[in-house]
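Much of what follows relies on a compact textual record of a protein's fold. The record below shows the convention in full:
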Amino acid sequence: KNTANTHVLHIGAGHLLALNEQGLPTAVALPGLETIGSENFGGKLDFPFTAHPKTCGETGEIVFFGGLPLQAPYCRMGVVRDRQLVHQTDVPGLEGPALMHDFAITRHYTIIVDVPLTLRIGRLLIGGKLIDFEEDRPIRFGVLPRYGTGDEV
């Protein structure tokens, strides 16, 4: 179940998005706070929407990422403008799912952080921890043009 209990984002025209880390946003109507339902931007969004999206102060675009814990590419990035999903791309080069909690944007770029705090189902199945800090892995930063493709990281 999507608890949508981590963050809210005003997206204009009397609507909020209620967010959590691993699901679709939940659309909420203003001013009465009625739940509208899951927001998939006309069927275009098929991956999780972070609870911590960024709004570009210059363009008003909402930039977000979503982690995919069970399958490669493990992370996707997206851009929403005027309540429409206008761009999405896979983030390549990730060895597995990591707990990417936050990221940064500039007017033209998205900066992602590949952290060594990982989520591994296989590790759990053999008696290990589902979430663990892999101290031998470095922290890596990826810089992606806002409207770029994964091969531009």
The mean pLDDT is 92. The two ends are 33 Å apart (CA to CA).
